[in-house]
Amino acid sequence: MNDGLIDSFRHSAWAMRELLTVCQTLTETQLDTTVQGTYGSIIATLRHTVASEAGYCRRLMGEEPVWYERVRESSNLDELSEYIDDLAARWERFLSTPFDAERTFVVKWHDVVDRDVPAGIFLAQTLHHANEHRTQICTTLSSIGLSTPDMGLWDYAEAMNRAPRTA
């Protein structure tokens, strides 16, 4: 098992669930709120984040979720929650077996040049990307006067008893 990565991916899924819990209380207008310097509206950013993670997972595992094609446009918060659970299970499965972090995948880069990108970079990007967009959503929530969830790694460690008090 790739024990060193399990907590990172579990934290990411947990943090997305925490954020979705807050977003479940929002109105349609609030979900459509945008703030300059962020990806887009709250709902668009959630859809983009989940779709991107599914794309990274698909590339590494070679399996495309059945919902992959429809996540960007029509997904509501309940569907996104289901997709996050599905992705969490996929990452658990992927990380439960050895993999070659240096195995490369050909990626069409933003400058239209093909690049060989190692699996380890995809794993790092998965976590970084989700964290970046969760932060943007929290910025948007704050801008409309709403509280943001505590989603940090220490919050996760405490919530999941991964940092128990010593005797």
The gist of it:
By secondary structure, the protein is mostly helical.
Task: Walk me through this protein's architecture.
With 167 residues, this protein is mainly alpha-helical. The protein has one domain (3-159): Four Helix Bundle (Hemerythrin (Met), subunit A), CATH 1.20.120. It has 7 helices and 2 strands, in the order αααααββαα. The chain has a two-stranded antiparallel ribbon. β1 (104-108) and β2 (114-118) form a beta hairpin. α1 (3-23) runs parallel beside α6 (119-143) and α3 runs antiparallel to α6 (119-143). It is globular, with a radius of gyration of 17 Å. The two termini are 29 Å apart. The model has no long low-confidence stretch (mean pLDDT 95).
Largest sheet: 2 strands, antiparallel
Give the name of the CATH architecture. Answer: Up-down Bundle
Radius of gyration: 17 Å
Give the overall shape, derived from the CA principal axes: globular
Number of distinct beta strands:
2
CATH hierarchy, class: Mainly Alpha
CATH level 4 superfamily: dinb family like domain
Number of helices: 7
Topology:
Blueprint: H1 3-23, H2 28-31, H3 42-61, H4 71-74, H5 77-95, E1 104-108, E2 114-118, H6 119-143, H7 153-159
Antiparallel strand pairs: 1-2
Characteristics of this structure?
single chain; 167 residues; mainly alpha; Four Helix Bundle (Hemerythrin (Met), subunit A)
